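The following block was generated as part of the benchmark described in Methods. Ligand: zinc ion.
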Amino acid sequence: MNTKSLLLGAFLMFFGLSKAQAQINFGERALGAVQKGMTGFTFTDADAAALSKPAVDKMDAENKVAGPTDPYAIRLAKVFGKYTKGEFYTLNYKVYLTKDVNAFATADGSVRVFSGLMDVMDDNELIAVIGHEIGHVNNHDSRDAMKALYQKEALIDAAASQSNKVAAVTDSQLAKIGSAMIDSKYSRKQESEADLFAYEFMKKNGYDVNAEESAFRILAKMSEGAQSSFIDQMMSSHPDSSLRADEAKARAEKDGLYKPYVKKPAVTTPVKKTTTKKKTTTKKKK
Ligand SMILES: [Zn+2]
């Protein structure tokens, strides 16, 4: 057996997918974008949403998603439940139960928050970090990243299936889209603008804007410490936490709103269970 087929076999076994399941069709809008060719095609927010939605569904299926009665899901709903309407997107929220410290939002308005992040942030800090992710959607960064990725993927696909028009994206492409959505590399300018979005969101809705500085200080500190492995992903896609904390502080000072942030306890009520199994949501101490 060659390496390629071994890898493919392992991939299919891992995801338990048959070939039929692996073909996912997109709506006409996304297909329209494909058929217009590889350069200069218009790629709308709806196209990006159509492309990201099945990738998010796939990730939801592969991750441990907190159910509606899970304390993490309840906390997230309490903090964000009222914020679902965006300019051209509707937000939906889920928690992935994992120690990783991360969060991402996709072009279709799906916001995914890792429980590891919720363990280290209080509610205001969560709003700052997640608000930043929503900022990328709001500012069309997610759409643009999706467009760039799609152009890259469409090129590969076109070479393979010149004759039979691109009518579906394969499961492996979907996986690529998924990991690209988590690890989206944005420009420094896009990052600053997403931070600003989070700041303005907090200001507008009456939250303590100083939580933004605090959130980035936490991330900066974690990246130096023993927990760094848990935040590698977030750090790699969002560098310069200390710098961003400084910028957040400067913004608050300029608005006359600065005062050192007093962290509130991150309250995620433990599940009341009759079983003996303990949840392992506590942080690792070394
Ligand atoms: Zn970002």
